[in-house]
Structures are given as structure tokens and as C-alpha cells.
Design the sequence.
């Protein structure tokens, strides 16, 4: 069907220990236009996959040497499992469903196989496999032009980061992302997730610095009802919520040492036990840790356990601060402005040359997060056209926290005589802001820092005769 029009046939690996089942099944799938290989058990399947990169696996569950469950467990652990269709005999449906849930298999079929049902599932699984491969290919191409998922950067520093992300994403290995606050560590983790075989699974992030120590273990590992005061019901932890996906542990060095020790055990055993629980729960989660601390300092101070560090530091990605990659400012501004235009219904095309020059001279202590905040204010203030110096915060780029008076946008300032009432001052400010936004009330409310409902209530309170709205 859909695969027959493809330049390269979709490859299918059929795994079954019974030749009487395996042969006819492979012949039928081949007749549908698929490229087919067979294996008598899970171990032979692993050997075949080294030279036959299957797009889809059709596997029996019960086999000698290595069964279908162990086969998929191995593939999932390596991060290399393609969509798998599980074949099961009557009475083993519960096991098949467990396989789908625990290992992320595509679907299951009960024996004897209904050809029409198998063909539909093969087509769907093949489409999923092709879509994943095409997405990965496009992301690789974009990364060479300065875009990788939601990250942008053409500087040599960011191209190096993109290169590491492309290399580590397909694996299951844990990794550590280091960099100052605001450099985009969570974006790195999300990019790795999106480029991995876990992209269909959940992405869960937890900020260890924002979590009270008393709740940290419950958030990570979950708890049973009655495990502690206030535990009114059973709750799954982040590891269970991230099953078959990726878990980001942000600001890892802020995690209590005792919790770090328990985390290390989970990483080594892939087993978690809820607080108050009596049994272990198997988890298949890729862990990415992030910190804004200098790793060496955190280790010396004992804030980061050495054994946990060495377990996580299979790969390390260092995100350079914005001041070390100022060449990325144009593409960053373009990308952020595009996003902010959509968010605030504005039509900003660029920043003026003097704004870009000011950006290049700024030290950016808050990194890309600070750049985004500065641009957000500028986009809202400008509304359309270009972001100018007058639209930036008054203290931006000036030593001592104040910009020279000549740079203040006088035509849009408010001058009121002493003795003006608060009510009259508020009316004047609202009227001037509406004039500035050309009567765009949504943008005016954003500039004033009030809700749209509050703005309408104020206008209603003043009355049309007291607050004249600009024409057009």
C-alpha cells in the first residue's frame, strides 16, 4: 500500500521460533511489498538487526533463549527499538498489554493472525517509523543552518553544542548540562528528548532548587497512602510519570545529599520504591541533570556527590553564556521577535542598528532569558515596525542604572503639574497609552500591567466624554 510507492521498501523483521508460523508470515508480508528478514528468537533478532535496520518488528512473545519481552527490553534500553507488533497466543493477552505499557510496543495481535488486521498495523507502524526518521533528518539539516528544535545559534560555540546533542540524543545514556542561569539548559534537554527514540514518551522536568527538602523524595519517587502526614492518597513520582520518556533534574546540586544517594541507586538499578511502599517498580527513564553551578566548586563543597556526578557525567554539555557568543544576537533577536509577535499580536520586523549595537556592548548577566525579557518589553512598547532605543528599559546598557536623558522618548512621556489627583493622573496615563497603541486595548493593558477587564472597567468608570479614544 503506502510502502509500495516508496523509493526504499519498508523493512520488517519477523521473529518467531516456529518455522511453520515464521515462514508463511514472512512470505505474506513480503507479498505486500515490504522487505523482510526472519529470526528464530530474540538473540538471533539482535544479531540480524546489526546488518538489517528494521523499520518495524513483528515478534512472538514466547520463545526459547530470548523471548519477545526480553528482546524489546534490550532494544528499549539501547534506545533503538522501532515500532513493534507483538503476536500473542490466546491467554497471553494480559502479558501483551503489559509489554505495550511497560516497553512501548506499537500494538498486539492475537493468534491466529488476521491478515487484514496485520496489514493495517504494519502500514501504520511503518508510517510512524518513516515520520520519526524524516523528523530526525530535517532536524539534522536545520541544525547545520543554526536551528535545532527550539534552539538557535550560528556561532562556533553553539554549533559544537548542536553536534554533541545530535550524537547523544539516540542513546539512553544519562548526561549533565552545565551553564549559567538563562542560557537554555531546559531547551537542550527538550531537544535531546525530541531527537531521541523516546520522543513519543513524556518529558518531565523538576526544579530541585524550588522543591522543599521534605517533599523532594515524594516528588521524585512517589508515595503510598498514609506514608506520612498529609499523604491522603497514592501518588506516582516523577520517575513513574516519565516512563519511556525523559526526566530533567534541574539544579541538581541543590538536591539534599541523602536524596542524591537514593537517586544514584535508581539510576543504577532502574527501580524505584514509593515512600511507604513495599515493592520495587521498574522504570525506563532517561535522566538529564542540569546545574548553573561550576561543577568543580559544587563537588569541592560537597553539594554534589562525586559518585552521582560520575554516574551522570557519561556526557557533559556546557552551554556558553550569551556574552561569549554575541554573534548569535541577530538570529536570536529574529527568532524571539517572531515568537513575541505571535504572543502579543504585534508586527515588529527588526531592531534598529543602534539597538543591536547596544545589545553587542551589553554583558547580559541574565543571558538569553534577559534578552527575551528586554525584547518583550520592546515589542510591546513599539507595537509595529522596529524596536528602538526608546522602547528599551530606561536603565538598559547604562552604567549606574540610568540611561542618558537624551535617549528618553519625550513625545510619549507624561508631565503633570503638582497637585494633580491620582484619579486624573490615571486617566491621563490610560489616554496616552491608548494613543500610543493606536487604541489597541489588549496591548495597552499589557503596557499598563493590568488585565483587559480592568482596563475596560476603568474606561467605563471614566465615561467616553472623559477619556477620548483616538480616531482610527
Sequence:
Amino acid at each position: 500500500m503506502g510502502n509500495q510507492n516508496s523509493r526504499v521498501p519498508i523493512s520488517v523483521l519477523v521473529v518467531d521460533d516456529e518455522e511453520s508460523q515464521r515462514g508463511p508470515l514472512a512470505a505474506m508480508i513480503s507479498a505486500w511489498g515490504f522487505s523482510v528478514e526472519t529470526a528464530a528468537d530474540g538473540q538471533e533478532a539482535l544479531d540480524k538487526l546489526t546488518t538489517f535496520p528494521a523499520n518495524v518488528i513483528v515478534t512472538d512473545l514466547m520463545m526459547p533463549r530470548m523471548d519477545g519481552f526480553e528482546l524489546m527490553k534490550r532494544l528499549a534500553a539501547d534506545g533503538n527499538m522501532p515500532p513493534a507488533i507483538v503476536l500473542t497466543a490466546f491467554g497471553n493477552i494480559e502479558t501483551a498489554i503489559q509489554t505495550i505499557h511497560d516497553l512501548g510496543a506499537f500494538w498486539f495481535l492475537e493468534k491466529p493472525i488476521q491478515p487484514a488486521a496485520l496489514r493495517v498495523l504494519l502500514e501504520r507502524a511503518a508510517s510512524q517509523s518513516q515520520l520519526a526518521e524524516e523528523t530526525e533528518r530535517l532536524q539534522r539539516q536545520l541544525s547545520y543552518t543554526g536551528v535545532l528544535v527550539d534552539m538557535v545559534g550560528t556561532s562556533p560555540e553553539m554549533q559544537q553544542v548542536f553536534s554533541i546533542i545530535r550524537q547523544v540524543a539516540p542513546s539512553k545514556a544519562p548526561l549533565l548540562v552545565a551553564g549559567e542561569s538563562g542560557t537554555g539548559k531546559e531547551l537542550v534537554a527538550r531537544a535531546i528528548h525530541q531527537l531521541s527514540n523516546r520522543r513519543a514518551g513524556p518529558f518531565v522536568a523538576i526544579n530541585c532548587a524550588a522543591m522543599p527538602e521534605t517533599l523532594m523524595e515524594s516528588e521524585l519517587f512517589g508515595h503510598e497512602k498514609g506514608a506520612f502526614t498529609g499523604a491522603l492518597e497514592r501518588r506516582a513520582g516523577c520517575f513513574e510519570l516519565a516512563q519511556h520518556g525523559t526526566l530533567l533534574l534541574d539544579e541538581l546540586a541543590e538536591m539534599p545529599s541523602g536524596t542524591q544517594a537514593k537517586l544514584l541507586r535508581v539510576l543504577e538499578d532502574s527501580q524505584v520504591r514509593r515512600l511507604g511502599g513495599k515493592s520495587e517498580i521498574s522504570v525506563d527513564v532517561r535522566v538529564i541533570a542540569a546545574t548553573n553551578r561550576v561543577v568543580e566548586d559544587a563537588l569541592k563543597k560537597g553539594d554534589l556527590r562525586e559518585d552521582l556526578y560520575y554516574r551522570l557525567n557519561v556526557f557533559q554539555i556546557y552551554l556558553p553564556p550569551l556574552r561569549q557568543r554575541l554573534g548569535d544576537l541577530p538570529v536570536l533577536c529574529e527568532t524571539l521577535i517572531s515568537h513575541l509577535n505571535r504572543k502579543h499580536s504585534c508586527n515588529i520586523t527588526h531592531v534598529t542598528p543602534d539597538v543591536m549595537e547596544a545589545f553587542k556592548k551589553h554583558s547580559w548577566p541574565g543571558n538569553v532569558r534577559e534578552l527575551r525579557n528586554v525584547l518583550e518589553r520592546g515589542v510591546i512598547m513599539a507595537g509595529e515596525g522596529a524596536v528602538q532605543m526608546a522602547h528599551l528599559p530606561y536603565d538598559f546598557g547604562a552604567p549606574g542604572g540610568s540611561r542618558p536623558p537624551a535617549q528618553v522618548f519625550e513625545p510619549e512621556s507624561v508631565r503633570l503639574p503638582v497637585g494633580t489627583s491620582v484619579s486624573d493622573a490615571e486617566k491621563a496615563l490610560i489616554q496616552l497609552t491608548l494613543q500610543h497603541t493606536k487604541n489597541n486595548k489588549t496591548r495597552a493593558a499589557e503596557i499598563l500591567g493590568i488585565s483587559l477587564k480592568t482596563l475596560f472597567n476603568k474606561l467605563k468608570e471614566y465615561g467616553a466624554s472623559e477619556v477620548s479614544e483616538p480616531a482610527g
Remarks:
- The CA atoms of residues 204 and 247 lie 5 Å apart.
- The first strand starts at residue 11 and ends at 15.
- Confidence is low (pLDDT under 50) at residues 1-7, 400-411, 464-472.
- The longest helix spans residues 115-144.
